[in-house]
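User: For my dataset I need records formatted as: sequence, then structure tokens, nothing else. Please produce one.
Assistant:
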Amino acid sequence: MIYNALTIREPYLQLIIKGLKTWEFRPWRPRRQGLPFELVLCAAKKFSTMTVQQAADLGIESRDIQPMHDGLACARALVTITEIAELDGRHRGHPGSGFHSELEVVAWKIEDVRPIEPFPVTGRLGIFPLDVAGELRLLD
């Protein structure tokens, strides 16, 4: 089965899975016209550094910013994107919201996060097709 996928660096993907990050910020709108739509979120090979102090400022425990994979790109969750919005005050202070401060940014509302059994992928930029042999195995 073919899914649409998006690569996100850790620790941000881990924060999404734990429910601590409910918006994703991108300097582009998805080409998809209709909402809602599903995406498989994939952990990037590269890890974004977040200091313990930055995490604390966001109300995040230091244990929640540790990488959950060993430097391998892997599919980690199935989510639903329910809203695409212009960046505004409701996003202030949200993990990742200050990263794009000098760019025109849109916020993607992430809901219905379903962790899946991780499997290796070759991540790409933007939304990309991900061919999954069989069904995604949801974790409890």
